[in-house]
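haha ok so turns out i had the wrong file open the whole time. this is the CORRECT one, sorry everyone. sequence first:
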Amino acid sequence: MTHRLVALTVASLATLATLTSQAQGLRPSAGAGVVTPPIRTQPAVQRQADYIVAIVNSEPITNNEVRGELQRVTQQLAQQRRLQPDSKELARQVLERLINEKVQLQLARESGIRVDEAALDQAEQNIARQNQIDVAELHRRLALEGVVLSQFRAQLRDQLLLTRLRERDVEPRVRVSDLEVDQHLRDQQNNNDPAVQEINLAQLLVAVPDAATAEQIAALQTKAQGALDRARAGEDFVALVRELSDASDRANLANGGQMGLRTADRYPPLFLEATQNLAVGELSALVRSGAGFHILKVIEKKSAGVPVMTVTQSRARHILVRVSPQLSETAARDKLSEFKKRIVAGQADFAALARDHSQDGSAAQGGDLGWASPGMFVPEFEEVMSQLAPGQISDPLVSRFGVHLIQLTERRNVTSSPREQRETVHAMLREKKLDEAYLTWAQDLRGRAYVEMREPPQ
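then structure:
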């Protein structure tokens, strides 16, 4: 639980995007405001005889409240594929969360904080806008989930009350000075501890079987050296990985062999020794391990906690075809595959097709999405875009918004200005202080509340 409104959606809205922009649904929204609060409902068939499990300043928390919240949290953890705590421990955490929330809501009401109907209406409109639907459709989907509208609005009112209380009582406590920003930058720039150095390496592996003969090893080394020579001559590393790498991780292969940004101490020492003096974009010599011959490419290097000084931006355009009862996903794929064939054959222009057929706000610009830094698009879109070379067109891909055809037009490296770097550090330090201040504040409120735990009826 954080000091700000938590983005938790009911099951029917969990798969909807909370991302919106000029390229509809591709860019995360900034300052979008309220998002859907947790709606603590459960199917009627799962209800049991209810009883009080805790009294918080004379207000009860019931077993059904705890069960409903526990069910929602369990579903959320499963959707995120996160490890779930022991059931008893999770139930204890859920009850403690409800107690804290009850204490804070009581304080908000006693302090005279109010949320009127107009604010609730605006919050509903914000939720609908973030999910790219109108309010009527939002209500329809909530009803399909079995959520009563009055209950939804009551939960939304509570979340707004909590947000306003925390904005009033917690945020004014937090200040970040220029001296703190300066000190943080100095500390991180002078920190050479591998545990805080983060590296993203891509690898091409030519595997060597355990029982390989000397002749086989020599042949495999020649194959690996040939791949390295091709990469150094300018061939696309991602394409070489897909063609030649023996790595068993399909996700790794699909991502061009990238192993992901991780602290240096989580890489094999062999890999670190081979890349420690390489700049971003450079290739190592062949690295021999027990698995075979590795070619390593440095994708990114940074110190944890320090803003990235240089980012690689991409400029792409796309054609979006939305799936509907009248147009299946397969038909949308076929339609975009035909577009790709016509463009590659020189029979059609990408921008013209985007203007005529794309169901996206970027259609008027020929599908142009502008310059984008990493993280600006949804993962399924960005993953494909990042693997394209300038001028290359993707195969049709499916995102949560429909089916896309992407063409990468340009790529560039952009260095953050000193002012931008300082703003990033300032925001990061403030976020950390806010979390710490909220925890202290919430613990103080909890400590001053009267809480009586009740045993289940026998």
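The longest strand covers residues 402-415.
again sry for the mixup
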